[in-house]
Prior knowledge:
By secondary structure, the protein is mostly helical. It contains 6 helices and no strands.
Amino acid sequence: MILLDRLNRAIVALSAVALLVSSCVLTYSVVLRYFSPQPTDWQDEFSVFLLIGVTFMSAAWVHSQRGHIGIEAIRGLLSPRVERVRQIVVDILSALFCGFFSWKSWTLFHEAWSEGYVTASSWSPPLWIPYVAMALGMSLLTLQILVQAFRPAADRSTADRSAAH
């Protein structure tokens, strides 16, 4: 899925920028608090929203690289055939969990959007912003897991070897 790969790469590039912006905003907040009695109320929430977006939106790319934490100890004990079956089973179970998480995130997004939920701070940004990032990110992750789980065996082993290097 070339389109999914390109989308994941674009999201990772944007996530890197968002992470940099979040770092700058938090640094600005610390410096401002040190040198000025002026209260700051938007920086923390802004950075949290960015970090939620970075975390969820880049998850599909991380999975495409097989970069999520996994149990490697058992991998070396299994034959290549059993390892492929184990990986497919783990991918399917992961897709089921991520699909459920995705569905719940979409329901949270809809509720926050339709009810006009905002945070409790004086800045009060709308809560649909982090929820849509969660929903989109988990939907992309679910799709990425399914693509990898049902990729033909030859393609899967080649892709996994290239992701490991």
